[in-house]
Structure formats: structure tokens, C-alpha cells
Amino acid sequence: MAGAMGSEKHASDNPSAEKQFTVDSANKTLPLVRAIVRDIVDLYRDVTERKGRLEGLRKRRGKAAQRQDDPYREEVEQIQQDLEKDVAKLQGFVDELNDIGIELKDPAVGLVDFPTQMDGKSAYLCWQLGEVEVQFWHSIEAGYANKEPLAPRPTDHAV
After folding, report:
1. What is the DSSP code (8-state) at residue 84?
2. More exposed terminus of the chain, fewer Cβ within 10 Å: N or C?
3. Does the model's pTM come out above 0.85?
């Protein structure tokens, strides 16, 4: 689970992440990105809850869980196998984003970064599940906590 959800990938870790996005190109990917990120958030929440319940169950059961005649052993093993399958599925979703060139930053809230250039420097356009379009950016050093709004774009129906 840590590979899919705990570690940040940087452009140097993932050759496909070196793709550069404009605001328009990032927004054009959002229908697909939104679907993938929604799946990640839902599955991450489910996996996290089930993992917590499984760990609690193992703690409560203590040494009984290690006995061969434990009536719940097979059920607990099946739960563990199902969790492992879902973690692999989650990693597959993350890989889909990476293949597009997008970096998952927070699977709990659906935060992603699109590599870009701002004033000739590497930066990220950032988007979070629930937002209509990409509206913010941040420098690589500053991170999401210090995001800045994108400059207003001209519209087609300006008066």
C-alpha cells in the first residue's frame, strides 16, 4: 500500500512525468483524470478502512490467530488476499495517472499535480477531485500548501 499511496513520485523517478502540461492541456485530460482519481479516492478509503479493521481483529484475536485450528483463520486470510488484490488495483490506477504524466499527491482527497513551466521554471499545476478545472499552481519547492491561483484567462465572449 505504501507504494501506491504514501510515496511521492518526482519527475526524475518517472520518465513519463517529464511531460509538460499547459492549463488547457491539463483541463483537457480532466474527464479521464477525474474518473481515475474518483476510483482512487473510493478504493483508497475502502482499503484503508478494511486494513484498519483487519489489524484490529488480529490484535483482538492475539495468539488464537496463530493456531491451525482457528475457525476464523481462513476467513482472515481471504480478507488479507482481497486487500492485496485491491492494493494492486489501486497501484494500477496510480500507474495510469503516471502514464499520462500526472503525479498523485494525496489519494485520500484526490490531489494531483501536472508538471508545467511557470516563468521558465519547473512547477506544478494542481487539481483536486471536486474542482471543475485546474485553477492553481505551485512551485516544486513550495508545495500544495503554498498554491497560487492561475492568472485569469481571456474569454471568447469578452465585451
Report:
1. H
2. C
3. no
